[in-house]
Amino acid sequence: MFRYLRRFLRIYQGFVVSGAILLFGTVAFAFAVLPGIRATRDLYENLKDIKKEVQALSGKLTFLQSVSEDDIRDRLMIMLSAVPAEKSVPTIFSTVEGFAKQTGVSIAEMSLLSPGSLSTGAATRQSAAEKKIGASTLPFTLNASGTYDEIRAFVGQINKIRRIFDVTSFDISTTSTGDTTVRLSLTVFYQSIEEKVGSIKSPVVALTTKEEEVFMKVSQYPDVSRTFLEAPAADFSGGKRNPFAQ
Length: 246
What we know:
51% of the residues lie in helices and 16% in strands. By secondary structure, the protein is an alpha+beta fold.
């Protein structure tokens, strides 16, 4: 048997050597070259992703360096005073009372129609209408009284202050003596702030012209809640005061 094997190798020695070299080359290509090619391709793809991330971060850095942190904070506070992140019911009352004080009317009654949890409304599921306008809503009613001009000013300007109110309906009545009362149905807005941070690849873009116009309009609305919250200055003029004096 070995004699036949030696004879076979002697006759086909060239083919055997070529076949062995071909087999070794195939095995080497499969176990060494192909993994190297895959690793090189993966490194190239990773390099492309890193370049994209660097470009995105460079764009964000350039944008952030072009704006002021104080300006961003002030803008955010202005918008949150108009449409807060939570229901912020106390600011509803302070704003209405402040505007009533400014216009001279008297608030007789205020009623929240569906207050739910007064502490927060961030977890409340929005309705289809709320998703369309991009904010959650809280309806309420109020009754106010005053002169005709005072009530007219109150109704005509209440949707141009911070917080932002939307008048859905109103009913005005005037007596023969000139006393005027109004019952208003209003809606106030709030919207939770997005807590998810965008990926590195997501760009940071400046406000559009329309968004800038909206901000400028809202920023010019007076914050009348401060009018109500400001305490009267104490009188330190000195001297005794008669507590029974009129």
